[in-house]
């Protein structure tokens, strides 16, 4: 009887299994999420939006298609998702780190840093007091595979009890400026403004709270001594970009979450107004240190030694985070989730191009909307080729190249001259890409106050290549763009300062 019951049970189970609805085939998970963007249920629309943002690049083709949807809600949400996803991808690309791998045992510290420098293609050296003694310290370091540049640096700092002192000419508060003096076999930086300097850490002070995102290290650093911070609990964050990254300015900081030792959330004050003028207007904060060998080191510094008395102004690598003062003033943020919003400069690229030039006919440049260029060339009474060019751009967003900068993809020339054959960032080439030598007959530049734009006018003489050059075909304005970035990091045990 028991076997008969089991037999009927199996028949019933098989019958109900066949009756169960099967998942809809032919529709991917991504497509189902796209369809839910237009759902009648707000909660379902929000959940689909959040999930598509998380999928990011893997769903980008479907998101682009959804932007053209006939349903207004689906199209609107897809466009917003696409903007965020593309922004995140661009941010990750800009901040992609240099990858480093170290695996050494009982090796001289200076030798380890030399190996790190070779992989990073930037100089990582020792500074501070008695760096030659540090150089002879033997250490064992293993990164356990390839890691980001700053993760490798922090690993070395941990085993050798070091701290970051100088990066790209910027000096950490309380650190010693780098003099770069040669002593014995100690490696020294040839270019301080493209180097990372490490120094011994004071054992009496705790190690700085640090977080790494891509090519940027963020540390909580002490405020310079004898400076006024106000009566709010405040933290000073220092961003250390890899030297190859052309950092322009820190604009603001957003506190995502902050908790004290009891787990209580701390309320952040509204951030101070963002920097809007990123054009260098003077030499404040620039210090020249004359070395013993006669060379000069340029230091951009935010420490007390180079600040006006009792006044603190963060440098372009720093951000100040303030918290509201309650009944009990916290001394430390146990966990701080924060995003630094900054701007960096792009790689050198053509900003505007006027091609297909015709003699005595004005040509307009094509490129970014933030640049306007017009050009015309002709032959003067002496048979010389002359080009007249007018250029207008926002100097906060665009920087022209200098004559020493290398232009990607540009062919050489046999003309006798200097640098890359640009004037004001302008180059002139024939249809084969061969550049003309340029002579500046006249030129002017001035700021258009009403539009806050730089207006440049130049009359250039075009010198053909010795081996022959076809007629002028293209005028290119070379430069770099300012690009916004976000650096999200989590810091542990961040000390807070408060004015008296």
Detailed description of the structure:
The protein is α+β, with helices and mostly antiparallel strands and 500 residues long. The chain contains eight helices and 26 strands. Helix 6 runs antiparallel to helix 8. The longest helix has 23 residues, at 72-94. It starts with a helix and ends in a 5-residue tail after the last strand. Residues 1-26 and 272-309 have low confidence and may be disordered.
Summarize the structure.
The protein has 500 residues and is of the alpha+beta class. It is 20% helix and 36% strand.
Q: Over the alpha carbons, how many angstroms does the gyration radius reach?
A: 30 Å
The overall pLDDT average reads 83
Number of helices: 8
Largest sheet: 7 strands, antiparallel
Residue fraction in strands:
35-45%
Number of strands: 26
Shape descriptor: globular
Distance between the termini: 89 Å
Low-confidence stretches: 1-26, 272-309
Protein structure class: alpha+beta
Helical coverage, percent range? 10-25%
């Amino acid at each position: 009887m028991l076997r008969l019951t089991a037999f009927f049970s199996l028949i019933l189970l098989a019958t109900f299994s066949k009756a169960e609805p099967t998942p809809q085939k032919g529709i991917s998970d991504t497509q189902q999420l796209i369809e839910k963007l237009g759902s009648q249920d707000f909660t379902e629309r929000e959940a689909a939006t959040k999930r598509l943002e998380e999928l990011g690049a893997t769903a980008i083709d479907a998101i682009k298609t959804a932007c053209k949807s006939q349903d207004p809600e689906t199209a609107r949400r897809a466009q917003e998702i696409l903007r965020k996803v593309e922004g995140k991808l661009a941010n990750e690309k800009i901040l992609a780190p240099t990858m480093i791998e170290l695996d050494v045992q009982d090796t001289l510290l200076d030798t380890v840093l030399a190996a790190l420098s070779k992989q990073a293609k930037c100089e990582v050296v020792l500074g501070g007091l008695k760096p030659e003694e540090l150089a002879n310290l033997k250490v064992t370091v293993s990164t356990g595979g390839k890691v980001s540049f700053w993760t490798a640096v922090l690993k070395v700092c941990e085993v050798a009890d070091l701290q970051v002192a100088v990066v790209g000419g910027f000096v950490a508060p309380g650190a010693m400026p780098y003099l770069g003096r040669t002593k014995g076999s100690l490696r020294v930086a040839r270019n301080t403004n493209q180097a990372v300097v490490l120094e011994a850490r004071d054992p009496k002070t705790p190690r700085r709270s640090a977080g790494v995102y891509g090519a940027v290290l963020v540390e909580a650093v002490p405020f310079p001594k004898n400076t006024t911070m106000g009566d709010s609990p405040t933290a000073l964050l220092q961003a250390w970009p890899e030297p190859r990254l052309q950092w322009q300015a820190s604009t603001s900081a957003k506190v995502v979450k902050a908790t004290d030792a009891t787990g209580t959330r701390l309320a952040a004050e509204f951030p101070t107004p963002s920097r809007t003028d990123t054009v260098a207007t003077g030499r404040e904060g620039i210090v020249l240190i004359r070395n013993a060998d006669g060379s000069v080191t340029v230091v951009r510094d935010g420490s007390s030694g180079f600040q006006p008395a009792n006044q603190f102004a963060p440098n372009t690598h720093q951000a100040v985070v303030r918290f509201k003062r309650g009944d009990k003033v916290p001394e430390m943020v146990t966990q701080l989730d924060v995003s630094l919003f900054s701007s960096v400069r792009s790689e050198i690229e053509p900003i505007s191009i006027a091609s297909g030039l015709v003699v005595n006919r004005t040509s307009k440049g094509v490129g970014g909307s933030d640049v306007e260029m017009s050009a015309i060339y002709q032959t003067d009474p002496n048979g010389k080729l002359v080009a007249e060019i007018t250029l207008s751009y926002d100097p906060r967003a665009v920087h022209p190249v200098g004559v020493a900068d290398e232009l990607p993809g540009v062919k050489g020339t046999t003309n006798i001259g200097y640098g890359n054959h640009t004037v004001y960032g302008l180059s002139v080439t024939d249809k084969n890409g061969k550049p003309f030598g340029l002579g500046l007959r006249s030129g002017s530049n001035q700021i258009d106050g009403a539009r806050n734009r730089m207006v440049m006018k130049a009359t250039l003489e075009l010198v053909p290549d010795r081996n022959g050059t076809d007629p002028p075909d293209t005028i290119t304005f070379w430069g770099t763009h300012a690009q916004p970035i976000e650096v999200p990091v989590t810091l542990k045990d961040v000390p807070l300062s408060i004015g008296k």
